[in-house]
Structures are given as structure tokens and as C-alpha cells.
Please model this.
Amino acid sequence: MLTICQNITTTKRLAKAAFKDGLTGLPNRRGFEAIVADPYEEAAHSHVTFSLVVVDINDLKEINDTYGHGAGDEAIRFMGTWLTSLLLPGENVARVGGDEFYMLLEETTPEGLAHRLAQLRRAVAAELRPPDRPFRLSVSAGGSVWRCGDAVTSTLSAADAAMYAEKSNYRRTRLPVLSRRAWASFSWSFQIAGWAVGEPGPLDLSEFDRHLMRLRVGYSF
Model:
């Protein structure tokens, strides 16, 4: 009997671990699919919709290259905790791989979803920084309202497309965080021209273009 109980306990732990992300403690992709199944089935009877949001950390590779993968892992854990703090009762967030998160929000209209996403973006812009770390975090986010009769995958695809549209706009207006080596070379070029530069971090693209034109040099990132 004791052996049977031990086996059952081990099986339950393994089953639970299969739906959990090891780095953040959040549900993983399989866990999120299981979470969405409940409101999806309930909506077939109640016709109450919900929203799905895709969130992706910007420039995580540059954080890894500059500060090490430990800092990148810390950024992912911090983001998971921060996104969880934005949830209302009945809502969920999952890390589905790499620097990507899914959110299930109880927003039933595009206007309500847009308001929540605007709140998220304002909070990011205010200063999103892991404790005792020199780098800031930013995200790209997109969402879509699920409608009765739609497949959940279709709603996620729409949210994903909206997220990538925002990320494309981010990349057009911002440069990634430079590695220490690249920054050293870049800083040296600026100092020759008589300009002082600060610590590595995102640069305004228009400002960079102005300086680059004055330097009359080409620099490849």
C-alpha cells in the first residue's frame, strides 16, 4: 500500500511538472492550453468571450550578450512576476518559450483589451527594471478577442501578428543594446570626434543617424 501511494504521488508530481515552466514557475505552453480549455468550453454555453495576449521581451539577446545569460534568466523571471502582478482574478499568464509569454484576460471587447494593453505599455515606459540591474526592460505586446466559433489558435495568431507589428515598429525606432565590445569601439569613434558617451543601452535611432552623418564613417552592428 505504501509503495502504491508513493507511486501515485510521484506520478502526480511528474504530471504537474509537465505543465509548469521550470524557470519562472508559471504554466508552460501545455499548461496554458489546459487553462484556456475551461473558458473555451464555458463560452460555448454562456457566449462570454475572453482575450488572448502575446508578450515578447525586446532585446533579450543583447542583454544575454552584454550581461550574461544569468541576467537574461533574471529578466525572464522578473517579467513573469511583473505580468502576474497585472492580472485580475480569473486571469492567467504563462511562459510559452524563450522570452515569450501568453496572457488570458477576461476582456470581452476590443475597447477593453486596448485599455489593458495601454496600461501595460504605460507601465513599461515608466521604468521597468529588475532590482539591482543596470538595464531596463521593454516589451512588444499584441492581443485579440476570442469570438464564439473561432479556434483558439486563430485568436493567438491574430495576437501574435499584432505583437510582431509592434516589435517591427520598435526595431525601426530603436537600436538594440550594444555588446561591451561593440560599445567600446563605438565609444572610441565618438570620442575621436569629441563627443562623450554613457553606458551601453538603447539609443534613439534619429540621434544616432545625426551623429553618424557628422562622423562620416560607416559602422556595422
Q: What stands out?
A: The longest helix spans residues 152-173. Residues 66 and 179 are 5 Å apart (CA to CA). Residues 7-14, 199-206, 211-221 have pLDDT under 50 and may be disordered. The beta strands are 51-57, 92-97, 100-105, 139-145.
